[in-house]
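Tutorial handout. Part one gives the primary structure; part two gives the three-dimensional structure as tokens.
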Amino acid sequence: MENYLTALDVAKCLGVSLPEADRILHRSSLKTTLVAGQKRYRRDELFQWLESTLGSLTVERLRNLDMSNASNAGLDSSETYISDLLSGGRIHAMVPARTRSSLIRSLAELAVETGLTYDEHLLVEQISDREDVFSTALPNGVAFPHPKDMRSVYMEDNLILLVRTASPIPFGAPAGRLTGLFFLLLLPSPSVHLHVLARLNRIVREQAVVDSLEQASDSIEMLETIRKAEVSLLPSGK
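Part two.
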């Protein structure tokens, strides 16, 4: 995905028609830049705006964002992509972090331990910088921390980690609510990132799923909860 996007690029990203994308962009606060005489939107600003609006998207719009970006990334939207990435020791059910900074350090350390990335200090810096823009924490106790600039982070492959803290902590959620479930997203492809972010938002909109993740006895039970929730969203109904 280019750094500057046309309205048509945005339409493909959102999974809507060009006229609908134009209406959405007109209502947004996004500014345009002239590139080769054409109005373009900065990718980073578009993503930031999208992330700030995910919680208010309708079920249909969120589904379109999920499916369109899976297609843009060359992924099969009928597969359990998130569950597959979380298998193999990627879920940590009892991390003893008590503050935002200690949680971010734990996330960076766990990511480096996978062998898929190596610069723990850079990860801490990038995740902190992203959270400083506005918190990725939702009102329901779930957050989606990720680097502010994924292009600066070397990755061998896509990585998602799910971390549950020993007790919920302050992480910037609305109304001072606490957060206990953290999905770390280290996904170099912008389309994969949006696909995963949209699908995760669809999954955790069900309060029963969040409750199950909070109450699960171990990482195996947490993975099964995610898998069942993801399967229920698949178009094939697998």
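Part three, for discussion. The domain at 81-233 is CATH 3.40.930.10 (Mannitol-specific EII; Chain A). The two ends are 30 Å apart (CA to CA).
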